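One-letter codes give the sequence; the fold follows as tokens. An example follows:
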Amino acid sequence: MTQNVLLTGFEPFDKDPLNPSWEVARALDGWQPAAMDGACTVRAVQLPCVFGDAIARLEQAVAQWQPTLVICLGLAGGRTEITPERVAINVDDARIPDNAGRQPVDTAVHAGGPAAYFSTLPIKAMVRDMRAQGVPAAVSNTAGTFVCNHIFYALMHHLATGTGGVRGGFIHVPTLPELAALHPGMPSMALATQVRGLQVAIETALAHQTDVREVGGALH
């Protein structure tokens, strides 16, 4: 039976014509890691950049695909590396409105939920392996408080309160050159490099149930 890896990306937001997280995700839709010998397929799903609605779409996709692994992607403009996130916090505090005009301030993602959840992806092993393939990568210790953290926390809450031992987490990606051209001075990373990085990250996550213990690799 084929396993599914659910890979999500966001729709464009803040007047940008595209969102790198979705461009990466859709480029990998249907990809099968060679190491799995056809026994695993990536399923890409686009999420709305809207508080609440993104959670509903994610939970619908999890129910549809019954994945063994879930990785949500989001854009971190200004970063120069692919950055697996360590922790999601139970706070929505939007600096700008989302695509539906919602702008929660100092509110909980899930009322009564724990203060934070840690990723269950092998984030340090993923960074190590991406770097070994020439892809700039680092562990990040903050996913912010916008829709990226919102969906990261919601994912981990959903997995923690469900059944089946599904692992998951969140990865921020840099912007693309065509978007950087609209934002002078913003660093970027080519789509092909980002896609290769995510291929490596997915393969590592499938191969490692637990993370490595290594010093370094963090975003500063």
The chain has a mean pLDDT of 95. DSSP finds six helices and seven strands in the chain. The radius of gyration is 16 Å. The helical segments are 20-27, 53-65, 123-132, 147-160, 177-180, 191-207.
